[in-house]
Amino acid sequence: MEVDALVMRYGDTVAVDGLSLTVEPHTITAVLGPNGAGKTTTLETCEGYRKPQSGSVRVLGLDPVRDARALLPRIGVMLQEGGAWSGSRADEMLRHIAALHAHPLDVAMLEERLGLAECGRTPYRRLSGGLKQRLGLAMALVGRPEVVFVDEPTAGLDPAVRRDVWEVMEELREDGATVVLTTHYMDEAERLADRIHIIDRGRLVASGSPIELTRGGPTSTIRLVVTKPFPPGAPESLKAALGDQVEVVVLDELSLLLTGSADASTLARVSRWCEENDVLPESLTLGTRNLEDVFLELTGRTLARGVTE
Amino acid sequence: MTGTFTPMPGAATLPRMVLTQARMESRLMLRNGEQLLIAVVIPVIVLVGLVGAADSLGLDYDDPVVDVVTPGVLALAVLSTSFTSLAIATGFERRYGVLKRLGTSPLPRSGLLAGKILALLLVELLQVAVIAVVGVLLGWDPSPGPAGLVGAVLAASLGTAAFASLGLLVAGSLRAEATLAVANLVYLLLLAGGAVVLPAAAYGGFGDVATWLPSGALGEAMRDALLHGDIAWRDLAVLLGWGAVGSVLAARTFSWE
């Protein structure tokens, strides 16, 4: 799958701003970014819902809009929400989608795998969010697609169900399908993806495997949380005290993230700075650099902050 | 590589997809209480009520009242299903992402439309059966002859096409709640004043206007067919016109989300 210089606007808002990325076959590829980063718009362009306003998109070598008839049977789509008649039953809905395909999966087996048997005769509108989400995934898989697009597959799911969904995706990859998922959960991307594309404000900010993205550069972090808001100019004065080797990023008014070499002398300098500036640390946490830190360094924003924006 | 999820994609054949879609839609329509009320219960109440209270209502025609009213109630059944039920169902399909979901399934849009029309015809067959039985029990004795039967089938088909295109026009451009309100309101207005159940002549001067409405044209065509054994070409042409205008407008304005 290839996205090349894609631009999508809604009125004056630019949702996708010259995005280019590639998805290799037989991988799990995560498109990671905060809400509003342009993930869903990009995915919906690949699914043929939207026509690129500029740039191009190819899936399995096909144009999703022009070659829709050839492409649609070969892809499976899990929407963020909805997608079923409110009065239909899960089993009925899944059998309906199955019947639109030539060689669908065995519906009973799929229901067993995804824990949908418990839905019984309950109409869709009365299913729990977790069951709706699992039915959405089942509908995406039942036609035995080559490429599966899943939009925020585990948003709002309890941990056990999340693991079930992850296992199914790993099995899909093993069996030769390609999975493209969007997420704003770091752990999901880190755990599942062979390749991660980090996007922010409609632009690609980094690509690579989880290891490539977290390796290199600073390997450790210090998170400083204080009891009352930092004095004005705190990040600058702390950076001056620590030297060029250390990056200082403001997380919120009570916490800072330092990335760089977190050795004993850095820690000592942080403590001294606190003493000199009359700042009382509540906690000083050492950590290794993870995707969350990478995202923060690249965009200056936390994923969580992106979510609330 | 053969595992549970090894890809083996492909679309079912178009006829199979259309049949699947029609079966699902008609089943959902018949399962829904409100839809069933408007499809079967109200027409039967109207039929029994008008025939039972004909004298006190002052209904007096050259033919027995039941012979006049039953074709009108059949026309009402076509109107309720192809306009009101279709509009409401489609409005909520948009709202709940069903159309969006089906948009990435192998079912093409033309197949979706064909499935919907087939589902309407299936439900209408059921309505006709129920209403005809009730009519006969009330003394309805139709003798339309071959021409009348052709006229009735043409009226029902063109009426379905006209009202379905108008229903999709409403459902594809308004929010689901607004569609619900408009579809029910139009149904009530046409039931009361659209010359569908009672002949246009019963409305005095407005009757001339009413025969240009799809409801009046459908009602008149149905009565001409089942009462007099005629094919009402002029009314069928009116239905065709509404169907053409409705289809063009619906195709231009329909939004899938």
How is the secondary structure organized here?
The complex is a heterodimer of chains A (309) and B (257).
Chain A: E1 2-10, E2 13-22, E3 28-32, H1 39-46, E4 54-58, H2 68-71, E5 75-78, H3 90-99, H4 107-113, H5 129-141, E6 147-151, H6 159-174, E7 178-183, H7 186-192, E8 195-200, E9 203-208, H8 210-214, E10 220-226, H9 234-242, E11 247-252, E12 255-260, H10 264-276, E13 281-288, H11 291-299, H12 303-308
Parallel strand pairs in A: 3-7, 3-8, 5-6, 6-7
Antiparallel strand pairs in A: 1-2, 1-4, 8-9, 10-12, 10-13, 11-12
Chain B: H1 14-31, H2 33-52, H3 54-57, H4 65-95, H5 98-103, H6 109-137, H7 145-173, H8 176-193, H9 206-210, H10 214-228, H11 233-253
Please describe what this structure looks like.
The complex is a heterodimer of chains A (309) and B (257). With 309 residues, chain A is α/β, with parallel strands linked by helices. Chain A folds into two domains: 2-212, 3-Layer(aba) Sandwich (Rossmann fold), CATH 3.40.50.300; 220-288, 2-Layer Sandwich (Alpha-Beta Plaits), CATH 3.30.70.1560. Chain A is 35% helix and 27% strand. Chain A is built from twelve helices and 13 strands. Chain A has helices spanning 39-46, 68-71, 90-99, 107-113, 129-141, 159-174, 186-192, 210-214, 234-242, 264-276, 291-299, 303-308, and strands at residues 2-10, 13-22, 28-32, 54-58, 75-78, 147-151, 178-183, 195-200, 203-208, 220-226, 247-252, 255-260, 281-288. In chain A, the strands form three sheets. Chain A has a six-stranded mixed β-sheet, with helices on both faces. Chain A has a four-stranded antiparallel β-sheet with strand order 11-12-10-13, with helices on both faces. Chain A has a three-stranded antiparallel β-sheet with strand order 2-1-4, covered by helices on one side. In chain A, helix 3 packs parallel to helix 5. The longest helix of chain A has 16 residues, at 159-174. Chain B is mostly helical and 257 residues long. Chain B has one domain (14-253). Chain B is 76% helix and 0% strand. The longest helix of chain B is centred in the first third of the chain and has 31 residues, at 65-95. The two termini of chain B are 38 Å apart. The mean pLDDT of chain B is 94. Classes of the chains: A alpha/beta (309), B mainly alpha (257). Chain A binds chain B through residues 47-49, 69, 72-75, 77, 79, 81-88, 92, 96-97, 99-103, 105, 109, 113, 139, 141, 143-146, 168, 171-172, 174-177, and chain B through 1-12, 16-17, 20-21, 24, 28, 31-32, 92-93, 96-98, 100-101, 103-108.
